[in-house]
Design a protein that fits this description.
Order of helices and strands: EEHEHHHEHEEHEEHEHEHHEEEEHEHEH
CATH class of the largest domain: Alpha Beta
Helix content: 25-40%
Structural class: alpha/beta
Number of domains: 2
Strand order of the largest sheet: 9-8-10-11-15-16
Distance between the termini: 12 Å
CATH superfamily of the largest domain: Uncharacterised protein family UPF0261, NC domain
Shape: elongated
Number of strands: 16
CATH architecture of the largest domain: 3-Layer(aba) Sandwich
Largest sheet: 6 strands, parallel
Number of helices: 13
Length: about 425
């Protein structure tokens, strides 16, 4: 993937301004004025349900409903406020996607409380990577927002002091957000397909190192390579792009987010981690990097169930504990189930000498019995549709990454993966 040049400084980006005009008239009109002052053109999209706003939007709530083949009356009569907002969200997402595809929208900014944020997350997710997306929310960065609903390039800001009407505090927030989305739309480079894109999951190189070998080798073969940091949101971005069929192949070598979700920590990418590539028929080369440990916030006490396990503090934000042999067996079963649903070829590389840097002899998370329990369980859990390749080496060795490249090259030769473009 290569990138087009930023928009010309003389161009006027069109920004969708989405909100409930019946209750947030003052805020939305203020935002429209700031966008014009910043050099953009606001396109007002009203997602009110119960009444029309006291101004004429570019796209009314009736237009939003029609975009998914329904009417505002049907939405109102759907049941309750939750079902009505979900239907309105479908319409706003479809309308935003259509306007962007037709070249009528260069970015989007959405204002809301919890109801508006619910809608905003769907609208942002409906737009492709590279389209500036800004959400002004009373629950920005809250744990109420599940990671699987966050678009990979979403920008958020807390709507401080602005739940009801304008004031000096919320004017600061609204003006910053509007300036940011206009600036992003004017300066943003647009992704354009040139070289086929490969996705790789990993942690930092102090824990997992294979990307140091894989990335330059894949680039030599004519591929664009994106490495995703598997600490929650990185995996979410990886899954979101896979769901949009954005990769020609993936090296999903860090599954720690699967283990994190399985153990209920906040360092999660959601329940569909390791599923979207297979669902989108993307060939997968998979390895169980870091599946022997669970990441946790380092600034919180360890959960009682994990408090006796070996612990490694990575920094003041995140730390890791090892899982038990029983937990690793359960992880192997879950991995097998997820890969068994894939609708494209899957190769599973099983490194027999270790899964991350800190599980080696002398390191704080060394646990040979636990590793052996996982290896045995993984052999049993993989379905017949998955090709198992056992590698008698540590995951961070060049032996491992060389084997991964050999599988990749064979798939290119067989036409499973398209050839790179040098």
């Amino acid at each position: 993937m290569s990138f087009a040049e930023p928009s010309s400084e003389t161009s006027i980006p069109s920004i969708l301004v989405v909100g409930t005009g019946d209750t947030k008239f003052d805020e939305l009109q203020y935002m429209a004025g700031i966008i014009r002052k910043a050099g953009g053109e606001p396109i007002m999209v009203d997602v009110s349900i119960l009444s029309d706003p006291p101004y004429q939007p570019d796209y009314s709530r009736h237009d939003v409903a029609k975009s998914v083949g329904t009417s505002i009356e049907a939405i109102i009569g759907s049941g309750d406020e939750n079902s009505a907002m979900a239907l309105m969200s479908n319409g706003a997402s479809a309308l935003a996607g259509m306007l962007h595809a037709s070249g009528k929208a260069d970015g989007v900014i959405i204002l809301g409380g919890s109801m508006g944020t619910d809608l905003a997350l769907d609208v942002a997710a409906a737009l492709p990577l590279g389209v500036p997306k800004f959400v002004i929310s009373t629950i920005a960065y809250s744990h109420l927002v599940p990671p699987e609903r966050i678009a990979p390039d979403l920008m958020m800001i807390l709507w401080a002091g602005g739940l009801y009407g304008l004031n000096d505090i919320c004017r600061v927030v609204l003006s910053q957000a509007c300036g940011a989305v206009v600036g992003a739309a004017r300066a943003s480079v647009r992704p354009r397909t040139y070289r086929p894109l490969i996705g790789i999951t990993s942690l930092g190189s102090s824990c997992l190192k294979y990307m140091k070998h894989l990335k330059p080798e894949l680039e030599k073969r004519g591929y664009e390579v994106a490495v995703f940091h598997s600490t929650g949101m990185g995996g979410r971005a990886f899954e979101a792009i896979a769901a949009q069929n954005g990769f020609v192949a993936v090296f999903d070598f860090c599954m720690q987010e699967v283990v994190n979700h399985q153990n209920g920590t906040v360092v999660t990418s959601g329940p569909d981690r390791m599923e979207n590539a297979g669902r989108a028929r993307i060939p997968q080369i998979v390895a169980p990097g870091a599946t022997d440990m669970v990441d946790l916030p380092a600034w919180q006490p360890l959960p009682a169930a994990l408090s006796e396990r070996p612990y490694h503090a990575h920094n003041r934000l995140i730390g890791s504990v090892t899982t038990s042999a029983e937990g690793r067996r359960a992880t192997a079963v879950l991995i097998g189930e997820k890969l068994g649903r894939a609708q494209a070829p899957v190769a599973f590389l099983l490194p027999l000498k270790g899964l991350q840097e800190w599980d080696q002899p002398g390191e704080p998370l060394h646990d040979p019995e636990g590793l052996e329990a996982f290896i045995v369980a993984m052999r049993q859990a993989l379905p017949a549709s998955v090709a198992l390749h056992e590698v008698d080496a540590h995951i961070n060795s060049t032996i491992f990454s060389t084997k991964a490249l050999a599988v990749f090259d064979a798939w290119v030769e067989q036409g499973i993966i398209p050839e790179g473009k040098l």
